[in-house]
Amino acid sequence: MLAWLGGLLADVLLLALFLALGLALLNILVDVIVLVVGIFRTVEAHRLAGTLTQEAARAIVEPGRVKGDVIHLVKSLGMALVAALAYFGFLRARRKYLHLFVEAGFESFVSKRYLVAREGGKLVGLITVVSVLGVAVGTMALIVVLSVMEGFDSTLVKKFMGVFSHISVQVDPRYLNTRVIPEAEGARIMEAMSHRPFVKGVAPIIDYECVVRNDTTTPANRRLAFALIRGIDTVREPTVTQFTSYVTQGEALPKDGEVVMGERIAQRLNVFIGEEIVAMGEPVQTANRVAVKQAKLKVVGLFSSGLYDVDDKFMYTTIKSVQDLRMMEDGGYEAIHVKVDQPEMVYDYGHQLLPDVPRGYGFRTWQDINPDFFSALWTEKVAMFIILLLIILVAALNIIGTLVMTVVQKTRDIGVLKSMGATSGMIMRIFLWHGFQIGLLGTSLGVVWGLRLCRFVEKDIDKIFNLPGGVYGIDRLPVIVEPSLIATLAACSLVICVVASLIPAWQAARLHPVEALRYD
Predict the structure, then answer these.
(1) Is residue 412 pLDDT above 80, yes or no?
(2) How many of the other CB atoms lie within 10 Å of CB of 180?
(3) Domain annotation covers residue 168
(4) Among 312, 331, 359, which residue terminates a domain?
(5) Which residues, other chains included, contact 335 with Cβ-Cβ below 8 Å and sequence gap of 6+?
(6) By CB neighbour count within 10 A (0-12 exposed, 13-18 middle, 19+ buried), where does 111 fall?
(7) pTM for the full model?
(8) In this predicted model, what pLDDT tens digit does every residue of 330-360 receive, in sequence order?
């Protein structure tokens, strides 16, 4: 029992030192890349020193960055040296006193002997290292890529839900032959919904798709754009969406006759805060012809949501302004937006809200607004998982090659073991343990490397490159590390490595002791 416990503690300590050494080597690689980028940026800043302002030069590279990067690299080298001395010193002691832990299990003892012993030749040892690194790199790539994609997905979903409500209650025209919710009925519905414990906000809206243009009398300077104008309740809307927090210039809450628009559509129309735009409304029958109702709206604010289509086509004003544009003399709303406490439960919440609305009403969720978008995100994540898993499969082929060479090299040892009473099942378990240990080393190292790179990407990726916020709506790569995802990836990697060990282990188990002992 003591021998088993001592062997277990020795193995855990050796694995910890191995991971510490691997982490130290990764830190050196990262610090070298950061230093090279810092030197390049410093040279670039000096080359452009005569044409850049002080702020622009500081944006390229911070003063004293190269010195700080060198100091950080020296510290990493020192930590790597200490980790290497500790690991190789303990490995030497473990190899020397491995026989003391024979009670820990025959199969595991022999497989560890094959893994850490010096006998076996440099080629087998090199292939073993390549196999471990292959599994580590594959696991690391899976963790980093899927964590960054999870961060991107979460950020995009949050932005999407900041623009669109969780649930939208509206009239089904197939039953009531209308799309308008009367104001009195809408007020009653909102009052009933607001008493639901899961409802965090309720607000009416009315949308209108039309052509807008800048207010100019010069045809050469006139610009047109297709836009979606949303009428909002300026009091209730901030409790449902986050448009007011996206405003970058001017006022967030417009009054009647005023509008807040996306920065991109403002650029296309070439309008600025304080200027007016002309919205083309419903056609109006006059005595001689049919004219299009036009309404002037003063631009009082600009917003940037980070979603391209929204910033390029969307603008909002008061409900009354849109009602006038659509010539809705009786008023009314087009939908009632609802914000709930748990967005992932919108379908259950939507069905719970149906008793609060009259017959002929229905609901849509934020997932129904753009299902192709969310389907594409999921498909992309699955595709990347499969593609990166191929790296681990390649490493598994290396494991097969490593074990086949080990079996060939240890043929006489297998014959001796079988002649001493070892069964075919025991021989098979020896090489399965061998493959499992390679997979465990590679997977553990890959998890450590992946978590370290995820932290670097989240905190310090701007030392290598800056994410263009104007394109992606965010200025750094978002990273979300899910423990369940890490556990799943590690389990998949280990299973692949063990499965890859089956063929050479089975081949070793089939060796006849007499033929094995005759092997030279």
Answers:
(1) no
(2) 19
(3) no
(4) 359
(5) 168, 169, 170, 181, 204, 205, 206, 207
(6) buried
(7) 0.74
(8) 778 888 989 988 888 888 888 888 888 888 8
